Amino acid sequence: MGTAPLIIFTYFQIQLYGQCTLDDIKLEQIEQKTIRKYVERQIGEGKHQFYDIQPSWNRGDDISLYNKDEATFFLNASLQDAWQSYLSINPSKLWNNRSTSMGLMLRKFPAKIFYNKDSLPYTDTGQVYFLNLKLLSGIYNIAVAFEIITIDTLEMVLEFSYIEGNRSLGVQEIKFIAVDDNSTKIIHTSYYKSDSHFRDKWLYPFFHKKITRDFHENLRRLGSFPIRVGK
Question: Quick one: pLDDT at residue 211?
Fold first, then answer.
C-alpha cells in the first residue's frame, strides 16, 4: 500500500472510530489496580487507537484449536424476556458481582470511554469491557478484556471474544433456547487457549465455572427471574 492510500485509509478509520484514543483514558477513574496496569500495558505495546484493539477470535476462525467448557442454566422467563434482559440491563451492574468487577468500557463506534460509575449504554457489538476477576475470594486478582463481537437476534446468540494480548484467547458464546412459553435454556460455552497447558487444563475450568455461575445468578437477581443450573 502506497503512502497516499495509507493516509486515506487512516483518515477513514479515524472518522469511523472517532477522535478518542487509549491515551485519553483517565487511569485515576479506574478503581482496580489490575485494570490500570492492563491498560498501561496495551498502550506500551503501541495500541493507541480504539481500532488497535482486536478480538482474538472471529467467526470463521477454526474453533477446534481451542479448549471447551460449557455450562447450562434454566431461567423462568420467556425467550424474549430472557434475551432482552441480558442485553438491556446496565452492563456495569451486570458485570459487578461476587467474582468480577468492571473498571472500564470502550465503545468503538463512535469512540467513547465509559467508567464503572458512568451511565452505560445497552450491550452492543464493538464494546470492549475491562474486568477484574476476583479469584479465591479476592486474594488473587487478574484483569481481562473482551469485545462484544456478535448479537444475533435470529439465532439468539451473544458472543464476546477475549482481545489480543489477553492471557487467555478465544470466545464465549451465550445461546438462548426456548423450553416453553415461560422457561428458557441458556447454554454458556467458552472456547479458550493460552500459552500454559496447566492453566488451560486446571485453572481456567475451575475458576470459569464459578465466574459463569455468579454472572448468571447476578442477572437473575437484577431481572428478578428464578434460575437454576442444569445439565
Answer: 96
